[in-house]
Amino acid sequence: MDGSFVALVQDIDDVNTLEGKTCTLSFWAKSDIANQRVAPVLKQCFAGGTASTLLIQGSTGHLGHTLDNTWRQYKTSFNVPSVEGQPAVGTSGDDALQIQLVLHSNGVHGASMELGGPSEAARTGDISFSQIQLEQGSKSTEFDKENPVTEIFECGRFYQKTYNLDDAPGTDTNYAG
To answer: Is residue 132 classed exposed, middle or buried when 0-12, 13-18 and 19+ CB atoms within 10 A define those classes?
Structure first.
């Protein structure tokens, strides 16, 4: 299927983030799938969804890094362009700087890569990531570990409980409303 891909995706609020600056994406990864590649991608996503995005070419190219079964740190630098002259950001709040760690791509972003190498050799297995960090500048620094209490508080803005607040998480209540 043309245009398909598998990736870890994280949006960072505000397409203006790091505009006109160099930034570095660093992460630790390993895989027990032979020849597994990961291609770091950075995109400026303007209001209106995926139709109005700008792909930012990174220093590792379209096919990125080849993982092995040992934890290793990988780095990719990007030069984030100005948003001047790009589609309007608008007021919908859906603009973002987007990180993608592409694991499989069939023609997306100009890359064709299969899980575990060529399609005839594709395998199943584990791919692990840790300490993913995007920061301003051309060098990566030590991973910033947040205080767990602060991190839980900050994650609260994305939290949604869809059942009675008196029910413990994981309780099967057949809640329908």
So the answer is: middle
